[in-house]
Design a protein that fits this description.
The chain is built from 16 helices and 7 strands. With 366 residues, the chain is of the alpha/beta class. The chain has a 5-stranded parallel beta sheet, with helices on both faces. It has a two-stranded antiparallel ribbon with strand order 1-2. Helix 3 packs antiparallel against helix 5 and helix 7 crosses helix 8.
Length: 366
């Protein structure tokens, strides 16, 4: 009798355990089902050749970013020259929306207020995903793989990898001294950067690239690839073979001749408002590689290791002026000679900016 009571008690506990486990599993599945339904957004885009593409948050896409003046425009132009990929110009709105979204998530009081009003984090994620998908999908001609190039988007790589589970990321790295000299000499205004000060810009560069590299590490090597600007311009073929293999896209020789696809149907779309346009219209060349040498103040050079510690971490010698970046391919040498002879001019079929876009481009980037 004592044995049967013990068995009965054990059986009863097992039944209750199974009930509660089943109930918990049901709630988890229902929550996932609601999340899937909230993210069930489809965007239909019809191209100029009447080809239709349906995009969703599960569509393959690539985000290209990095600190401004790090070769992000060159990379996206080379990808745009591939018939299966479409990037287009910067949207400018995507980094701003991501900044707002991260703010709503971080600020405890605001987050609680939103949730008390019924605006949950799940709702915000679904709305953010739908907005980004709409912008990216309709930003240009449709293609099997969509691409977005807004430099600071890669500060949100981990978040983007969650709402777009089949996305990949290309983080452009460049010697910070070259990036900063380009910002200052070309008067490229960037939010938070004092472009009258090499010291300030190098400090901000170091912080920014550290944050993006950390995000890339969180996403993991299968979804985030770091590409050095120096490698891209010195050995473009080897570098682009690696990039396309990472994206799972077949090789196309056109990526090495992006300048020939500018303004062509299904090719590279450029705008006169983009600061890099006058450089990207040229073939890959060495013109800007060491242009920074001799322009950085002596006191900044002497304190470079403290000002920009990420230089050493990324493998750049902070005391070398100029550093040895490597040997260029023969094709690149040939391209550089053509560029120095002035054989490349601004194409007449570039998009002309409206007065509003020119005004917007003159404002500080966020």
């Amino acid at each position: 009798m004592r044995l049967s009571v013990r068995r009965g008690t054990t059986l009863l506990l097992c039944v209750f355990g199974l009930y509660f486990a089943g109930n918990a599993l049901y709630k988890v599945l229902m929550c996932q089902s609601r999340l899937a339904r909230s993210r069930k957004v489809s965007v239909l885009v019809e191209g100029s050749n009447q080809t239709r593409f349906h995009y969703s948050h599960l569509s393959p896409m690539v985000f290209v970013g990095g600190v401004p003046r790090s070769g992000t425009t060159l990379m996206r132009a080379m990808l745009d020259a591939h018939p299966l990929i479409r990037c287009g110009e910067e949207t400018r709105v995507i980094p701003r929306l991501l900044g707002l979204r991260q703010g709503w998530k971080r600020h405890g009081e605001e987050r609680r207020s939103l949730e008390e009003e019924g605006v949950t984090q799940e709702t915000l994620d679904a709305a953010t995903m739908a907005f980004l998908l709409e912008i990216i999908a309709r930003h240009g001609e449709p293609a099997p793989m969509l691409c977005n190039k807004d430099p600071f988007t890669l500060k949100s790589s981990s978040y983007l990898s969650d709402i777009f589970p089949n996305s990949k990321f290309i983080l452009m790295l460049r010697d910070g001294r070259a990036s900063v000299h380009s910002m200052i000499s070309r008067r490229v205004t960037i939010g938070g950067f004092d472009i009258s000060s090499y010291r300030d810009c190098l400090t901000k560069w170091s912080h920014a690239i550290e944050a993006m590299l950390f995000q890339c590490t969180l996403v993991g090597p299968n979804r985030c690839l770091t590409v050095r600007y120096e490698s891209l311009v010195l050995q473009p073929r080897t570098t682009m073979v690696k990039v396309l293999r990472f994206l799972g896209v077949r090789w196309h020789e056109g990526v090495l001749h992006h300048e020939l696809a500018i303004g062509q149907p299904g090719g590279v779309s450029l705008s006169r408002t983009e600061r890099s346009t006058d450089q990207v219209i040229k073939p890959v060349n060495l013109e800007a590689l060491t242009r920074w040498v001799g322009h950085i103040p002596a006191d900044v050079l002497e304190d470079m290791e403290n000002i920009a510690p990420m230089l050493s971490r990324l493998g750049y010698d902070p005391s070398a002026n100029p550093p040895d970046y490597g040997q260029p391919d023969p094709e690149v040498i040939n391209n550089t000679e053509k560029v120095l002879r002035g054989e490349f001019k601004l194409p007449a079929n570039l998009k002309r900016p409206s007065q509003e876009s020119m005004s917007e481009a003159s404002r500080t980037r966020r």
